[in-house]
Amino acid sequence: MTQTVSFAAEVGRxxxxxGQTWEFVMHNVSRRNAIRLAxxxxxxxxxxxxxxxxxxxxxxxxxxxxxxxxxxxxxxxRGLSExxxxxxxxxxxxxxxxxxxxxxxxxxxxxxxxxxxxxxxLALGELDEANPENWLISDGKLYxxxxxxxxxxxxxxxxxxxxxxxxxxxxxxxQGH
Length: 177
Description:
Order of helices and strands: HHHEEHHHEEHH
Number of helices: 8
Strand content: 5-15%
Strand order of the largest sheet: 1-2
Radius of gyration: 31 Å
Shape: elongated
Helix content: 40-55%
């Protein structure tokens, strides 16, 4: 604040030497400051109206489990947050860079058939979040379930073809999830 006052005083002394009135000088300084303020406000409004993509991360797929590990190691394995890949509006985590590269090359092969949802529940016309610890690979496809045996994979396998067909018929329930 003191710098502004001394600057204005300096401008006023200069204006007095040049024969200008103090009011004229203050009017010009005020207009300049008003223009600067208007530009700053406009820039702030513009900056806050732009969408922020950095803060809007895609939702985590299958609770952070590595989808490729089911096929390569035969067990559910948690992925690492530093090894991720976004596909189909989901963020997948992987236990290794090699697994991420395999997924990137063929995501349809490795991603669970019904995303984050229980295959058996979907076959019954319901939406239940799956637990990646309950899983099944059949005909090269990964299915995950909300409940352990006998309700999840074991029940699904009792009539595998019919349950897959019913789940696929009910796929519309997944819209918007």
